[in-house]
Amino acid sequence: MNEHEHSKCRSLLxxxxxxxxxxxxxxxxxxxxxxxxxxxxxxxxxxxxRKTISLYHESAAEAGEVPGVVRERLFRTLNLDDYIRH
Amino acid sequence: xxxxxTEISVEALRAGDREEFSRLVDTYSGPxxxxxxxxxxxxTDAEDVLQNTFLKAFQHLKDFEGRAxxxxxxxxxxxxxxxxxxxxxxxxxxxSDAAPEDDDNSDYFPAQFTDWCCLPEDEFxxxxxxxALDRAVQHLPETQRIVFVLRDIExxxxxxxxxxxxxxxxxxxxxxLRARLHLREELSTYYGERLDKRSKE
Lengths: 86, 201
Description:
The complex is a heterodimer of chains A (86) and B (201).
Chain A: H1 7-13, H2 16-21, H3 26-38, H4 40-62, H5 68-77
Helix pairs in contact in A: 3-4
Chain B: H1 10-14, H2 18-40, H3 43-60, H4 70-89, H5 121-125, H6 127-138, H7 142-153, H8 158-165, H9 169-200
Helix pairs in contact in B: 2-3, 2-4, 3-4, 4-8, 6-9, 7-9, 8-9
């Protein structure tokens, strides 16, 4: 059993998603913040979880448009040939 | 997926206005293609999903009741198409909602405690880093992957994700949490190694 696996960390795990999304109730939020201030491992989990989500979020923003040839084939498949060039 | 500057007219779509349909395609093909690519990992498969999504949308426009937004409706069709293709490719995998939705997250309990957030920004912007992100998503079970892609990559709300996948809110939240924890573990391995490498340089 990992030393980190004590009951408090476990009981808060289910609320982490709501916590990082900012949709957790005030009371539970404060409970997590109190715990994270004392528990180094949970502090790291919360930080890296936030970073994980933001990396994916940013990667979506950077993902480009549909490649030109794919768009063209799509328009032809849909019989929208007349609208390929706007 | 943000609605276009000039809102698309459902009435015009229903009336068979082809120009309006082409606007719908141009507005939403980017996000739908990205979703398909993240789900399937292969550009030709993503293109199949993209085409089938709009073919089905065209066929079923008359059934669109306007209860959900157009974008959620399209995401629903695209998600079904992506999952169907995956099922066809790997019939041995069960896609039913057999994934346990109970409160037992013990299999997802964190095991990696490296703080890699302090890595320099260029580390996160490399193409190698992007490939690691994509690889990690591909390792998620499909039922978690689709929830993660809709919520955290496409930016749908929990409610919109629930609507697009016809799942309960609890199911969406459970799958999302597990997907996020799973990805955090995998990225911790990758960036932990990068951290090690940098410290030795």
